[in-house]
């Protein structure tokens, strides 16, 4: 793979992630100040307090499971159960289709060297 391609991809993803977190924090601040301050009579929060609320809610309700957590395991078990009920020909057809889909992404991501 082209080194410049991966650097661009990492930088672009980082910028999008930071922008997404900033936007989500802003939305939490607006919702807290617009809804809770009116309905429950709590004090308003600043941008940084809203970010703290997001982190706190992630710790309390979401946890830090790592790469996929239980979802990845459940998806794999579900797919294996589906494949068990198929004939060997049908199973191989599905595997070949997924190989083609994955190879399509590999072919499209290769940039010619200039």
Q: Could you provide a short overview of the structure?
A:
The protein is mainly α. It has 2 domains: 1-64; 68-114. It is built from 4 helices and no strands.
Give an overview of the whole structure.
The protein is mostly helical and about 110 residues long. The chain has two domains: about 1-65; about 70-114. Helix content is about 80%, strand content about 0%. The protein has four helices and no strands. It has helices at about 5-40, 45-60, 70-85, 90-110. The relative contact order is 0.08. The mean pLDDT is about 85.
- Low-confidence segments, ≥5 residues, pLDDT <50? none
Largest sheet: none
Summing up helix and strand content along with how strands pair, one would put the structural category as mainly alpha
3D shape: elongated
How many helices does DSSP assign? 4
Order of helices and strands, N to C? HHHH
Give the CA-CA distance, first to last residue: 14 Å
Mean pLDDT: 83
Q: How many structural domains can be distinguished in the coordinates?
A: 2
Percentage beta strand: under 5%
What radius of gyration results from the CA coordinates? 22 Å
